[in-house]
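This entry is passed on directly below:
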Amino acid sequence: MSNRRNDTLGGTLSFTASCPLHLEVIADYPAASDLQVHYAANDKLLKASNALQEHMIDTEDYAELAPEFARLDNKVNMILELLSLVIAEQIQLPPSHTVQMSAVALAVHSSLSFSPGEKVSIGIYFEPTIPRPLQLFGEVMAVDEWVTDIKLDSIPASMAEALEKLVFRRHRREVAARS
């Protein structure tokens, strides 16, 4: 399923990162009402993450204020980072694993033991300044010695769009870092 050595996973763009990750085998996916609760929280998390990454102000119209905007942006980012460190110390984050993630699939690089066909609950802490996991569900598609490929299931359209934005931005950063 995965193309681990390039930029796609499950036929769509992907990014690779090392993030705290919790994977757990489940008997079945949660009930529809429980999924709605998870996905509402995910939607908020993805919107917050996307908002942190966006810089919408056209500084040409406010050239004299551009240094002030940059200074305020740096201060807010520093406060968020410090706050996330305090929160991260209060909660126990799961161990970090290298993951390749797209909007439809996940490849986990670790020695975790899973079998194809198992349903899994996935908690991935992809945003260091927001110590809250993106909660997803999927099915293990393939396992080799060090990589578990998981197809993500049951993602509503609104969340899929926000997840695609996240993946696109992370992928773009990876490409820029390689150049």
